[in-house]
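#onboarding

Welcome to the new folks! Below is a worked example of what a typical request in this channel looks like: someone posts a single protein sequence, and someone else replies with the predicted structure as tokens. Don't worry about understanding the tokens yet, we'll cover that in week two.

Example request:
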Amino acid sequence: MAEKFMYCRVVHIKFVSEIQMKMVSSYMEHTMLPRNLAAGQISGEVFKISENEVFTVSKHPDKVTADKIMALMQQELKEIAVGSKLTKLEGQLLIGASPA
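Example response:
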């Protein structure tokens, strides 16, 4: 049986326009994130880098759950990727701070 470690995924998205960034960010906030949290994702955050660029950070209990969540979003990610550039980094949490 594989050990379970927290698994994180960071996605950088550069949109063609500010309006596209705002529309997708709103969709993430109101549709994707609540659904993903209900499906087992621990947390999700979206950070604005510029007027047309964001990065997201999502934490999952393990890679199996992360992959399950990614499968839920495959069609949406294909649509978001049209006219934008997505870069994904992911891996097992190596060092993490606990709240005091």
